[in-house]
Amino acid sequence: MKKTSGIGAPGFTLVELMIALVVGMVAMGAVYTVYAVHQKEYRNQQIRLSIQQDLRGALVILEDQMRLAGYDPEDSGRFGITDVRRYHLVDTRDDPDGQPAIFYTVDLDESGDPDPRNSHRNKEHCNFRIRDDQETGRRYLAWDNGAGRNPLAENIQALGLAYGVDLDGDGRLDTWAGGAHPIWAVDTDNDNRLDTHLDTDNNGVIDENDDANGDLQITAGDGGAIDPPVPVTRIRAVQVWLLAMSPLPLQGHGDQSTYVVGDRIVKAAGDGFVRRLAQTTIIGRNL
User: Fold this and answer.
1) How many domains does the chain have?
2) CA Rg, the chain, in Å?
3) Exposed/middle/buried for 198, CB within 10 Å: 0-12, 13-18, 19+?
4) What is the helix (H) or strand (E) element at residue 20, kind and residue range?
5) Distance linking the first and last C-alpha atoms of the chain
6) Max CA-CA distance within the chain?
């Protein structure tokens, strides 16, 4: 028989209280599990969204600047893309083993004469480079618009750049071997001249197949040697690749993809990091 309270209402036995407690704990555990799953998915989606936003914003500025590069209202012929070498990720020296960079000039004061640099600061001399932050260990895309280095996009793992050229001055991009597809050239020996065409199989697509010897680099040895090399003054278009990577690995995520970033092939190692590749082609208005 159930015990009764002092006012005649029925009470609960110890067994009933224990059952209610267990049921309540199970329900709370289920609610927490669902909450944790949703929180994890929300966090993962935020990381993916952040990467996409970084890439989108960086490409917008890159496109705007590459269309401005070479702005020369006085038609002096002294402005344009000036340097396409690879540079060190920490200091300011050029480095064949570093990441590609692009330096360009614009005639902002419309004088027809590039202003001299002032302690490496001048708004007519600009560049995009990949840098490593020694304090945080993160890699980012930097834009120096002549007033100092500005982090443009965080967690950028690699930058790829290739260049369309016009050697004969007919206003159209030159094609490879007289075919239908444009030359997309890079500087592989860091002498600031374009010596290798990336679309080595000439199918109109720069992909893993263009790395004929499988060494994860598209070089002259893969069949795209340009001889003689092309000066940077003949550049008329830029193809850009940006590979972003999440700052932390995501549990349960295993990326096994292969990414082509300019003349480099990047193979993910299933390490849990989220990677996203963005690519665009920019025809220079002032080049």
Assistant:
1) 1
2) 28
3) buried
4) helix 14-68
5) 96
6) 105
Task: Report d(CA 17, CA 24) in Å as an integer.
Answer: 10
The two three-digit tokens of residue 161, written as one number: 């750049």
**Residue 249 confidence (pLDDT):** 85
Q: Is residue 36 part of a domain?
A: no
Residue 126: domain span: 42-283
**H/E stretch holding 159:** strand 156-165
String of DSSP letters for 44-72: HHHHHHHHHHHHHHHHHHHHHHHHHTT--
Q: Where are the alpha helices (DSSP H) in 137-282?
A: none
Residue 157 in 3-state DSSP?
Answer: strand
Q: Which residues of the chain have pLDDT under 50?
A: 1-7
Residue 271 within a domain = yes
Residue 129 within a domain: yes
Q: Hey, what are 119's tokens? A: 């302690």
d(CA 164, CA 174): 7
pLDDT at residue 1, rounded to an integer: 43
